[in-house]
Design brief:
coiled coil; Helix Hairpins; 4 helices; mainly alpha; PspA_VIPP1; Phage shock protein A (PspA) family protein
């Protein structure tokens, strides 16, 4: 089970590596830093708002304190020491509140300065990260494009290799067919491939053979007629070629018997 779990985690990690885009990760990190910087700025704004509210309260208390002091002087001038004492008592109470508010104001002012300094430092870090992020993204994009171009060239090289092999095979087959055709032409010209049945002869040879064969038949027919005529008359050894049209008659114009070819 441990091994299966390790294999599963390894495959999942590999799948995540393939799915992860560093540019998206950098953009996400930059977005988170901007959110953190925004929170710090809101904190600075909240502290500044509190400090400003204390300043307004201090101003109001200081105005009241001044008013009580003026009232005490007027009461003493009129001989009303009791009123003067009451005014000064109220002024003293306000003065304690003023002291407390001044202490809080000083603390808030210190916190505001710290947060402002932290915000400035964080802003500088975010700006530096943004510059580095864009540089890394540009470098990654260039490397990715270069890789894709290299893979494309590799694919083209493999494809061209296959095409080159196909062209080489086609050229080899073409040369082989040309060599075979040349050899057949030479054999045909030398007569080594003449067809005994006469089917492979050209038209001129066929015509010559036909004329030659016809002449042999006519000569054989004349010879046979001459032999038959010689056997019947006993005096004429041969018949001239000009009397071939009278082969069916004797020397005196009498019809002769038809020759019997079974004896020839």
């Amino acid at each position: 089970m441990k091994r299966m779990g390790m294999i599963f985690r390894a495959k999942a990690n590999k799948a995540l590596d393939r799915a992860e885009d560093p540019r998206e990760t950098l953009d996400y990190s930059y977005q988170k830093q901007l959110e953190l910087l925004q929170k710090v700025r809101r904190g600075v704004a909240d502290v500044a708002t509190s400090r400003k509210r204390l300043e307004l309260q201090l101003n109001e208390l200081q105005k009241k304190s001044s008013t009580y002091e003026d009232q005490g002087r007027k009461a003493l001038a009129l001989g009303r020491e009791d009123l003067a004492r009451e005014a000064l008592s109220r002024r003293a109470a306000l003065q304690q509140q003023v002291t407390d508010l001044e202490t809080q104001h000083t603390q808030l002012q210190g916190e505001e300065e710290k947060l402002t300094l932290a915000s400035q430092r964080l802003q500088a870090k975010v700006d530096a990260f943004r510059t580095k992020k864009e540089t890394i993204k540009a470098t990654y994009t260039a490397a990715q494009a270069q890789t894709q171009i290299g893979e494309a060239f590799s694919g083209i090289s493999e494809e061209m290799g296959d095409v080159g092999m196909a062209i080489q095979r086609a050229e080899d087959k073409t040369e082989q067919l040309r060599a075979r055709a040349g050899a057949l032409d030479e054999l045909m010209a030398s007569g080594a491939l003449d067809d005994p049945s006469g089917l492979a002869k050209d038209d001129l040879q066929a015509e010559l053979d036909r004329l030659s064969g016809g002449s042999d038949v006519e000569l054989e027919l004349q010879r046979m007629k001459a032999e038959l005529a010689g056997g019947s008359s006993g005096s004429t050894p041969a018949i001239e070629g000009g009397q071939s049209g009278q082969s069916g008659q004797g020397a005196q114009g009498q019809p002769q018997d038809r020759p019997r070819f079974d004896k020839q």
